[in-house]
Specification:
Elements lengths: L8 H6 L14 H11 L11 E6 L2 H25 L8 H17 L5 E8 L1 H4 L3 H5 L3 H13 L3 E2 L9 H8 L5 E3 L3 E4 L32
Antiparallel strand pairs: 1-2, 2-4, 2-5, 3-5
Helix pairs in contact: 2-7, 3-4, 3-8
C-alpha cells in the first residue's frame, strides 16, 4: 500500500524531468532493483520479452564508454543545438540552461553512479525496422524513468552514445545479436523536480491531422 506522502502517478508523470546533473554519491542496490522490476512490468511485442538490462557501476567501463558520448555531443549534437533556434515553447534563456545541463552531462557522464543500458536480444529476429523493435523496449525505459522519479532519484534518457554503437558494444562486451537502445545515467539529482509545463495546443488533433479535437474544449 502506498504511504500517505507518496506522490500519485500523475504527480510523478508531471514532474519527471530530464535530470542531467547528478551527484556521484552511491545509489543503494535495493533501489536499482526496484527500477529494474518496474522495467520488466512493461509490455513487449508478442510478449516475447527479448530485453536485457546492463547495469554499469564500474568507473573504468563508464570512462571508456563516455568517450564516445562526448565525441557525439562535441562533434555533432551540441554544435547543432547551439547553432539552431530554441526548442518550441522555450525562451533563449531557458534553452541555454538546458544546453548547459547537457554539456554538464557530457563532461561528467562517467561520474553518474549507475548506468542502465536497455537492450534487445535476438536482433536478427526483429529485422531492421526501428518501429517494431523500439516498441518492445521503450515502454520498459519509460517505466524505469517513472520509477526513478518515484524513488527521488534523477535520470535522463539519451541515445547519443548509439552513434558509435559498434565501438560501445565492444567496450561493454555485448554480443552481436544484442542491440543497445538507450543509456540511462541514474543518481541523486542536484536540482529540483518539475513540474513539466506543456500545453496540448497545436499538438493534438481530432480524426484528421490539423482538425481540432473537441475534447480540448471540455472543462
Amino acid at each position: 500500500m502506498p504511504e500517505a506522502n507518496d506522490p500519485g502517478v500523475f504527480d510523478i508523470i508531471c514532474t519527471t524531468r530530464s535530470m542531467r546533473r547528478l551527484k556521484p554519491d552511491p545509489v543503494p542496490d535495493a533501489l536499482i532493483r526496484k527500477i529494474l522490476e518496474a522495467a520488466v512490468c512493461a509490455p513487449s511485442g508478442g510478449n516475447m520479452q527479448r530485453w536485457g538490462f546492463l547495469v554499469i557501476t564500474d568507473r573504468k567501463v563508464k570512462e571508456e564508454a563516455a568517450v564516445y558520448y562526448r565525441r557525439a555531443w562535441e562533434e555533432h549534437v551540441g554544435p547543432g543545438y547551439r547553432s539552431g533556434p530554441p526548442a518550441p515553447g522555450s525562451s533563449p534563456e531557458r534553452f541555454g540552461r538546458m544546453l548547459d545541463a547537457a554539456q554538464y552531462l557530457s563532461d561528467h557522464l562517467h561520474q553518474a553512479p549507475v548506468w542502465i543500458i536497455p537492450c534487445l536480444t535476438g536482433v536478427s529476429v526483429w529485422g531492421s525496422n526501428p518501429y517494431w523493435s523500439g516498441s518492445s523496449i521503450y515502454p520498459a525505459i519509460q517505466n524505469m524513468l517513472l520509477a526513478v522519479r518515484a524513488l527521488g532519484l534523477g535520470a535522463t534518457l539519451t541515445t547519443l552514445i548509439l552513434g558509435y554503437s559498434g565501438e560501445v558494444k565492444t567496450v561493454l562486451g555485448l554480443p552481436p545479436d544484442v542491440q543497445p537502445y538507450a543509456l540511462l545515467p541514474i543518481g541523486w539529482p542536484m536540482g529540483r523536480f518539475g513540474p513539466v509545463r506543456r500545453t496540448l495546443d497545436n499538438v493534438v488533433y481530432g480524426d484528421r491531422w490539423g482538425e481540432p479535437y473537441r475534447g480540448l474544449r471540455l472543462a
